[in-house]
Amino acid sequence: MLQLKQISKTFSKSTPNEHRALQQVNLTLEDGDFVTVVGSNGAGKSTLFNVICGNFFPDAGTVSIDGKDITWMPEHKRASFIGRVFQDPMRGTAPNLTIEENLALAYSRSKRGPLHFALNKKDSAFFRESLARYDMGLENRMDTKVGLLSGGQRQVVTLLMCTLVPPKLLLLDEHTAALDPATSEKIMSITNEIVSQHHLTTMMITHNLNAALQTGNRTIMMDRGQLILDIHGKERETMSLNDLLELYSSKSNQALDNDRMLLT
Amino acid sequence: MVILLGSLQLGILYGMLALGVYITFRIMNVPDLTAEGSFTLGLALSAALTIAGHPLLGLGAALLAGAAAGCVTGLLHTKLGIHPILSGILTMSGLYSVNLLAMGNSSNLSLINSTSIFKMVGTLLPFLDKDMVKLLVALCFTALCALLLILFFKTHIGLCIRATGDNEDMVRASSIHVDNTKILALAISNAIIACTGALIAQYQSFADINSGVGILVVGLASVIIGEVLLSRRTLTGNFLAVLLGAIIYRFIIALATKYTILPAYMLKLVSACIVAFALSLPAMQKSLAMYKTRKEAQKHAAAETNF
Questions:
Q1: Dihedrals φ, ψ of B265, to 5°?
Q2: ipTM of the predicted structure?
């Protein structure tokens, strides 16, 4: 499905601030994989996502999806098959457009010509029905401007926007980190529901190691631009939080900074 | 009465300009200075072609040339990475030469002896008096323009343009090319503004190379007056409010000159002041609210210490 080969990316090359964000990263995802990505700040997780999305291009290596090389494909073209949800709830939606208009924008992208009306009754009913499933009361507020919603509500709208037309790959960049614990849990369960419903191939960055082990079917760990751990199957099922922490410190040869990895 | 009718005609015509300004200023969130050049561009082309005997062609040419001017600003901004306001200034200055070229290197043209659209409609409808014809033509063009815009912004691409002004990141993530929506918005805005210029030239039977100076402020003032007067819940409502704002702006100007409250040359300064004042309202309201809250808090604190 997704294949990354020898991806490297260095920022501020040949300056004192040189930062090797990714160093020859190799990763292959199978169809329907739900991979959680963990690692401390600056490990290269978001850089990895940015390279996959085309936010910037790698210095070396190739990105391909379903066997097609997309290393140099511009970001907006990839967006038709890669969905991404950010940590910041403000980033995924247009605040001055209504819920319905936001959803319509995401939904009609692949369907019709540019001069067709963006809203119609059939789509509206579909949006309402899709929102109602998540039990946030949003289905009755379709004409509300998204800017008036809470962070959690906005993340639900963003998630739905990314998955109304199921993408080939869904990237979740700490999408619950800015929310309170209860909302965060709710968004996580909605995420699981959406992913299993469409059988989406998904990557999720998280600092919550418990969630990392409990969600999905595979966990990878990054450190200083390298993939240092890749666990799945039986090994992952039996792994406890402490095992993961130990593995991390032995693999990365550094004492684990507990303050930086939020172990909630 | 004559003044009222004249202001109404002008107000309706300049309503189109205000619609064009609204697209860049409110929807795209960038005040576009190309307007000053593209207004005169439309005016110059329309005047030159009307003198040559093609008033309708003048209007079409203005529309296309205005769109082209908007595209230039858009390309400078998106593809060459120049600051949007600076891109507008560059196009505007460049257009000054283009406009002089269109007017045959003379700084003003008179259309008194040529057949304008207004005169054409006048001969078609001889039973209407001259002012009514002018009003009718102005109303038709502005209504058509407003209607097309209202419909356009309900389409998918229209929605993309609105979202671009709101949250670029999100639009890019919806597989839409942000550069294209920006260029398109600038092209539409400037096409409308040039078209206003074209109509104004034929309306006043006169074209001057400096007609565009300060025209952006006129547009902004109309937009802001409209927003103050009418609630702004939907985009359609906003467009109508902007049209109303343009008409009211003309009435204010007419009253001010009629009763010689101010000499005519002060108009631009007054317009600029109105816009500056209206734009600073939110900031002033905020500090006023802050001041009140603080006073209130101090009062309570004083009351508590008294106990």
A1: -70, -10
A2: 0.82
